[in-house]
Amino acid sequence: MTEETTVDLLGVGIGPFNLSLAALAGQVPGLDAVFLEQRTAFQWHPGLLIEGATLQVPFLADLVSLVDPTSPWSFLNYIRTHERLFPFYFAERFHIDRSEYDDYCRWVSESLPSCRFGHQVDTVRWDAARGAFEVGFTRVDDRGEAEGVGRLFARHLALGVGTAPKVPAALRALTDDPDALVLHSADYLRHRDRLLSAGHVTVVGSGQSGAEVLLDQLRARPAGREGLTWLARTPAFAPMEYSKLGLEHFTPDYTRYFHDLPERTRDRLLPAQWQLYKGVSGDTLGEIHDELYRRARTGGWPDVTLTPGVAVSGADRVEGRIELNVVHAEQESAARLTTDAVVLATGYAERPVDGLLAPLRAHIARDESGRPRIGQDQRLVLDDAVEGSVFVQNAERHTHGVGTPDLGLAAWRSAVILNALGDRDVYPLPRRTAFTSFGLTGALGGDRQRAEPAGSRLR
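The structure assignment produced for this chain is given below.
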């Protein structure tokens, strides 16, 4: 492709979601697609590829299988290609190691000619005369140094720029201090040895990452001198919802239902659903308890403190150590915790694209809170001045709900985008995906399918 080539679809970012789109797009005859990523190779949360850590979704939640299980880019074909199909069969593993998923995605990314690494997208603008988006980019080397610039034109865009580590405001100064061992869990493996050498380590955050960091540290530290504290804002170290019907919140059926709710209702629902996507695997919680019990049985109570319901309100460095100001909401009490290192398992925030899309800002429709409006088909709602479509991935939790970051919806969402792009069923999708009927419309069966206005009586 030359700089003057106009492709049908240009993807910005190559994480799992845009890689899924690239894999499915590569099987569509006549579709010209290219995907640009500033990193020089595929990487998926490298700081959290802890030995033994597994995905929280089954291996069928790969890049393609839930839409096209015959695709050459399925996880099973990756296993077959690497001559591990029989060992995988006998292992009877439904949840694979994160490191294996990372390697699988890298295999796909290196096999697809549409994926171009070392390309940092800088600007996007609509060229009305050409009827396409002009995308300016910088080519970068392994050190992130610029090697040259270029541009491509695309009729449509797919933004999959991912998320960035979220650091509480009270601790940002310490994460920027090279002398303070305060880091986000995204960088955990890089600092693991330093953390093991620290006398006391505090983990902040009640999700899966926090649990895995605590468990890894616990297993590696000497009995009786563990020196670990785990703090969480949530009222409990709670397991993630993993009942079969509960998991139906991660189906296309629930996504459509959530999208059709009023904006204020969606905003009220999301925080209340934290246990659907911010809890901890029951297996991981069990492993933590088993390790604590083993140590308590052989050497007395371990030096480990687990305290939920606590928020960190401030932090300081005092005589080479770190002091955390903590507040317990239910007790309405406060205290200071002295520690040597802090790991912030405080989650991720959607990476802002306002700078990238600045030339399109006036054309993007917004909701009451100023967030972009996004259609069910993943398209930003744009005015008529822009004829092309901008699709978004993992930036639509406010419109599509808790399933937005879930790997299990990757293939389905990619198919939705490709169907919208082609204005036809490029990939036929099932009309129903859940036994649960969300909402009253069509839920009551027989002649009771008409939803009544609020306050009326069901007949």
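Interim note for the steering committee: The radius of gyration is 24 Å. Residues 446-459 have pLDDT under 50 and may be disordered.
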